[in-house]
C-alpha cells in the first residue's frame, strides 16, 4: 500500500516476522535476528525504483545487454542507536553502500533534540540517502535527524522504519514532505510516554537486552 508517500510493506514474511518481534517473550537474540531479516525485505521495497542501466555482459556463450544498477550511489544513515539494527540487514543486501550515523538526545529542559554524534560520507548530494530508525514514534528525532542530513548536503532521501505511529508520520511529513516513508506497519497511537501502541516496546532495549 502506498498513501501520501507512506508505503506499508504488507508482504506475509514481513508481517509474520513483525508479529514475532511484537511478542514480549521473544528473546533478545531472536529479536535482533528478526530485525535483520525484516530489514532485508524493507530494503527490497525501498530499492524498488533504483535506476538501472544496460551493460554488455559476456556469458560463457555470448555477449548480452543486461541490467545493472546505474543511478545514484547509496548512503545508509542510521539514527543511533536502534537504527543500527535495520542498518546491518540492509548492508547485507547492499554491501557497497556508504554509511553515516546521527546521534541525538532530547534535552530534558528544552525538550529539543541535541546532536551528540554525526559522521557522514562525502558527496551526500550525489547519493540516495536512506535514513533508518525502527520506530517512528513522535517523529521529532527522525525529523531532526533528517534535517541534519539535509544540512550536510543530502537532497534525495527516503526514510525506513519498522513501525510508525500516525502522530509521528504527521510530524515527519509536515517537516519533510519530500521524503517518502517505508514501514512494515502503522500502529494505533502513541501513549503518554511516547511509546507506539500496541508496538513492540523499546526497540533499542529489545535489540540489546538493556532495560
Ligand atoms: N521508541 C521505541 O523504541 N519504542 C517506541 O514505542 C517508541 C519509541
Mean pLDDT: 94
**Count of DSSP H/I helices:** 6
Form type: globular
Strand content range: 25-35%
Q: What is the total domain count?
A: 1
Instruction: Return Rg in Å.
Output: 18 Å
Secondary-structure class: alpha/beta
Largest sheet: 8 strands, mixed
Folded structure, characterized:
With 211 residues, the chain is α/β, with parallel strands linked by helices. It has one domain: Rossmann fold (3-Layer(aba) Sandwich), CATH 3.40.50.2020. The protein has helices spanning 12-22, 28-46, 83-93, 140-151, 166-175, 203-208, and strands at residues 2-3, 6-8, 52-58, 63-69, 73-79, 98-106, 113-119, 127-132, 135-136, 156-160, 163-164, 181-183, 185-186, 189-190, 196-197. The strands form four sheets. Strands 1-2-12-10-8-5-6-7 form an eight-stranded mixed β-sheet, with helices on both faces. A three-stranded parallel β-sheet has the order 9-11-13. Strand 3 and strand 4 form a beta hairpin. The model has no long low-confidence stretch (mean pLDDT 94). Uracil binds next to helix 6.
Amino acid at each position: 500500500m502506498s498513501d501520501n508517500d507512506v508505503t506499508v510493506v504488507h508482504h506475509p514474511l514481513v508481517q509474520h516476522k513483525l508479529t514475532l518481534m511484537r511478542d514480549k517473550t521473544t528473546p533478545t537474540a531472536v529479536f535482533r535476528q528478526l530485525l535483520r531479516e525484516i530489514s532485508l525485505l524493507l530494503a527490497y521495497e525501498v530499492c524498488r525504483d533504483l535506476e538501472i542501466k544496460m551493460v554488455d555482459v559476456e556469458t560463457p556463450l555470448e555477449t548480452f545487454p543486461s541490467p545493472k544498477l546505474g543511478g545514484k550511489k547509496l548512503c545508509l544513515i542510521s539514527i543511533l542507536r536502534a537504527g543500527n539494527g535495520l542498518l546491518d540487514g540492509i548492508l547485507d543486501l547492499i554491501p557497497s553502500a556508504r554509511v553515516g550515523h546521527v546521534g541525538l538526545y532530547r534535552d530534558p529542559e528544552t525538550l529539543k533534540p541535541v546532536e551528540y554524534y554525526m559522521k557522514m560520507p562525502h558527496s551526500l548530494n550525489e547519493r540516495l540517502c536512506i535514513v533508518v530508525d525502527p520506530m517512528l514514534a513522535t517523529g521529532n528525532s527522525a525529523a531532526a535527524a533528517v534535517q541534519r542530513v539535509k544540512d550536510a548536503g543530502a537532497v534525495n532521501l527516503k526514510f525506513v522504519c519498522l513501525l510508525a505511529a500516525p502522530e509521528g508520520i504527521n510530524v515527519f511529513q509536515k517537516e519533510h514532505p519530500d521524503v517518502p516513508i517505508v514501514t512494515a506497519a502503522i500502529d494505533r497511537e502513541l501513549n503518554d510516554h511516547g511509546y507506539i501502541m500496541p508496538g513492540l516496546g523499546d526497540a533499542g532495549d529489545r535489540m540489546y537486552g538493556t532495560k
